[in-house]
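Internal tracking record. Fields below are filled automatically when a chain is submitted to the structure queue. Please do not edit lines marked as system-generated. If the sequence contains nonstandard residues, flag them in the REMARKS field before resubmitting.
Queue: standard
Priority: normal
Entity type: single polypeptide chain
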Amino acid sequence: MQTLGGIAREGRRGESTGGCRHLGRARPYQFRRNVPDPLCAAFAILYRPVLRRAALIALIIGTVLTAINQGDVLLTGAITPLVLLRIALTYMVPYSVSTYSALSANRMEERP
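SYSTEM-GENERATED OUTPUT FOLLOWS
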């Protein structure tokens, strides 16, 4: 099993190398249907395909929104700590939405 910082992840060729090792936690997320071991929320958020896609979406959408909302400030060079905070938040919104969408789409149905 390959781990990164104690977190199981997919192998290089797409095969699954393990799941969540948090035995006491609810594990409601299953991204690959052929893997019998679902993931808890912490592992699901740190699941490499979710991270990669969310980062790519944040980079693209965040850049477009930053150009729209802060473009004039960046062009004039009047960058303040508040502007930097706004830019950081601009990138965090699409990242958060993408991660939430992935988790929502891959949540397993509750079984009675």
